[in-house]
Amino acid sequence: MNLQKKVTIKEVGPRDGLQNEKQMIQTEDKIEWINMLSETGLTYIEITSFVNPRWIPQLADAVQVAKSIKRKNDITYAALVPNERGLEGALEANVDEVAVFMSASETHNLKNINKSISDTYPVLKPVIQEGIVAGKSVRGYVSTVFGCPYEGEVSIDSVLAVSEQLFSYGIEELSLGDTIGVANPKQVEEVLTEVLKRFPRERIAMHFHNTRGTALANVLVALNLGITNFDSALGGLGGCPYAPGASGNLATDDLHYMLAGMGIETGINKEKLIQAARFLEEKMGKELPSHTMQTERSKISN
Amino acid sequence: MNLQKKVTIKEVGPRDGLQNEKQMIQTEDKIEWINMLSETGLTYIEITSFVNPRWIPQLADAVQVAKSIKRKNDITYAALVPNERGLEGALEANVDEVAVFMSASETHNLKNINKSISDTYPVLKPVIQEGIVAGKSVRGYVSTVFGCPYEGEVSIDSVLAVSEQLFSYGIEELSLGDTIGVANPKQVEEVLTEVLKRFPRERIAMHFHNTRGTALANVLVALNLGITNFDSALGGLGGCPYAPGASGNLATDDLHYMLAGMGIETGINKEKLIQAARFLEEKMGKELPSHTMQTERSKISN
């Protein structure tokens, strides 16, 4: 294996995790939770999404969350924005980075954004460019890179086309998402090999879901290809919107377990990570599904 | 990746899975379940263990199970035997293969077998040799290869020493077990690299547990090193005896999902695998923890 020495884990729990949780979390609890995450050694936290609250009521408190958390200088606090109106909110709340999103699959893009892929570009272009003018770095998410809940297979060409457009508008980093958790290591190798012919590895992040248990195997392949940015959500928060009850985001704690065991630096303190996960479990009144949290609970019950 | 084209999945659910389940399963249900497993395309099933029923009441019906299942010619039906008495039972029931076991960690071996490692050899040697004389192939399990619940780290030298002894007695195949599910891919690479300097890859099997979610990543490394035999238990049956509530054996269905997606042949039919898992869930009155079964359930509830 040709391993990287250092990896940046980008915590997406407060956004991608919570947006898939039906149970409403109190704003003050979110703020306290994010403050705890800031103490774990994480250097990147996606704290919320400035979307229309009609679509995601859970994140209706985006402004308040973004304005109330205690920020640390060495952490990038990011937020998702779907359009110019979202960007305004994010700029008003002064987040460090904004992230736009679209899908590599026509049908998923249509169902998720209510627009075709080609009609999405003119929406995202000004968001990206105004974000940059405002002094923010901009991240681009591409979803359904490894499979679509409606179309099944997604071609590498579609992934490359969307990636190319987003980079051409000025995004700093591209996050490739296995939205429904279907990817296998061979596919990750195939897709990434093509992606890395066109874009530098430092500007690519991988965003795996663990719906079929393959997320860490997929991470391993990406690591071997030089990728050093990985998205994950503490405790595996979030589930999969297309498979209720199934595992969702790759868990930050599971990812950290594997990387730490392999001697790969993340700067994260495991105990503080577990504490933050326990806090959220308490506030939600439910157990988080990650393997690490299952194992931690069993230690207590022993 | 340097992938194998064909892999043999060795189903250990009826033994390693069930022995860690507290809830007693009816003998007739076990028999029907194993008969269903025989229809999935699996070519190897470890059906029970001929241990003292005082230690594992769940498998007290070993003789009846072994004698009552419908056998298919192209399937190897194996059973675990701890000693000569166990071997007698297994031979009487005419299983195709017997498996002996010991630990690479002194303390785990002592707690599990009530003997030191050096005192275990004289017990296993005649079992292996009499098994061979009786016309059976013999498998050797080494447990705690990647970590011990009592000692923590286990040295590669201990693993090699135990492996060397077992091969010298005539075992056909060695199964290296991550008993408590702590292994990471780098460690698997390190251990296997040493193991494969001494023993041919065709005679090594890997037995991963998914306690920390790393099992499929570990499989991937072993595949890349030429290993083609993997143990797993349908639905992730079994839990981890040292971490109650946590995931246990790598799930056959999750392993099959990854391998099939990568175009690696296993001969297994996914639908029949799921059917067999559903049958067991019904008989146990509980859900199996594998990612695949979680996803399958969510399809129904959708």
UniProtKB/TrEMBL annotation, chains A, B:
Keywords: Lyase, Metal-binding. Residues 7-274 form the Pyruvate carboxyltransferase domain. Pfam families: HMGL-like. One of its GO terms (molecular function) is metal ion binding. The keyword Amino-acid biosynthesis does not apply. One of its GO terms (biological process) is ketone body biosynthetic process. Belongs to the HMG-CoA lyase family. This is Hydroxymethylglutaryl-CoA lyase. It comes from Bacillus yapensis.
